[in-house]
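Question (not urgent): is this output format expected?
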Amino acid sequence: MVSWKAISSKCIVRLAVAVAITAVSASCQPTQDETQKRPPQAIPPATQAGVIELPDGSSMLSQIHTERVAHRSMRMSLKAQGGKILPNENRLAHLGPRVPGRIVAVYANLGDRVQSGERLLLLDSPAFGEAQLEYRKRRTAMRVVEKAFERAKALSAEGAIGISEYQRREAEHENAKAELYAAEEKLHLLGMSEREIERLSAERLPHAEVAQVFLRAPFSSEIIERNATVGEVVDSSKTLFTVADLSTVWVRADFPEQQIGTLTTGLAVEVRVAAYPETVFHGAITYIGAMIDPATRTVTARLQIPNADRRLRPEMFAEVTVRTQEQSVLAIPRTALQQVGNRTMVFVTRGSRRFEWLEVTIGESSNEYVGVKAGVKEGDEVVTEGSYALKSEALRGQMSMGGPL
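Got this back:
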């Protein structure tokens, strides 16, 4: 059995230990008087989320300038994500023969400038010769039938022939006229001019010339592709020349989906290319696509640019800037913006020495101002000069606190 004496000893030991712990704890805590005498610790300005306060008399204050957020009449600049020079497709032609044949001569080379109607090549085509001979045959038959009709008309007037004979001669004349017209139209379809068709009315023609046809330029242009070789046999599916009038060119440009509401036809554009970095080419939007590219979320616009000196060439990459019409936009100076990671920030004054650090959503921009969609309101004073120094001070304060800005 455990004696009462042993139990009492254990209780006394435990009580002594508890008293000792209480005494030590009381000695570690300051008295109420000491707590009141101790001055409060100063909180560094940058530790307050989104606010920085400069000390009175700071040299940084003299470097800070502000400007009021307000609506301004601005002509925005829209940047295309990509641009490419293309031929003006209204002045572009892929030329091939209208009849099969063998190339006899080629008169134009790659890069040549040709005038409207100028000969590009000569083709020897039996099918074309047959069409010319058919025309000559119909022309001869027309002369014979016409004489017979004139004679029948005179005899009918004298009562020498009956009305049925006169009507038969008249029908033969109308049929011959229709067949001649059809033969002439076929020659036009094959590319012959009126002057060349008139030449077929001669009594005799050189045998070689009957089957020869020229391929001609449809308008004043430049040869940008040639696929013709003397002696080559070709048909109507073959493209022998591609010609383009490069006095004007098109630019295909892709704009982000959110800019569609600002784009309209007729807006002025500025185009720059790497080959002439100091030169700005001016033009206008002539077409805006009706569909959005589902992969890139962009809309394609077509621009037309004068190119009288032929410096812009198809397939060049281009930098495209669109100048919008003037409009009233809530805007802040470009110098007020500071980039922190993927966020755009500004400092807004909240007193003579206090500045609030705010994230803004920006829109289109001009040379000096940037449209702002959210983050600040009209009348706010934003820091322009000195904003970078405030940013550095804010970042330093956040780093000392061990937290992100």
